[in-house]
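Hello,

Our lab assistant flagged a job as stuck in the queue for most of the afternoon. It eventually completed. Since we weren't sure the result was trustworthy after the delay, we are filing this so someone can double-check. Below is the sequence as submitted and the structure that was eventually returned. Let us know if re-running is recommended.
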Amino acid sequence: MQTSNILSKLKSGGHKNTKVREAVIDILVKSTTPLSIVDIADNLSKMSLKPNKTTLYREVDFLKIQQILEEVDFGDGKKRYEIASEHHHHVICVSCKSVQDISLDQDLKGQENKILKRMGYKPIGHSLEFFGLCSKCQ
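-- returned structure --
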């Protein structure tokens, strides 16, 4: 999705588009990997935008609520964010920390529903990430 499309969607929903909001969206649209708050703040700083931490967290929370961003957890205690798109997973190199998107051809949603139903849970989502050594780090 392009930055202009996302901003139009927000504006048509009655939301204002601030410089920080526009920049955060643009940074994440252009990123090839999910970014942490620190990564986003560093990118904003390079653009001469320096919102305080609270503002940045509020902005990310707002964009999550609007279903513009998705939170990604690689199990290292850092939350990362990416533009919401077709559901996919990631493969992460444990050495150089490179991240690649992957799609699974199997019926993962069906398996998820089957497992959770058997266990007595109502399905609401899942997180599945793969970790290993990329070809450069092997």
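-- support follow-up --
The delay was a queue issue, not a problem with the job. The result is valid. The CA atoms of residues 35 and 127 lie 17 Å apart. The helical segments are 3-12, 19-30, 37-46, 53-65, 108-119.
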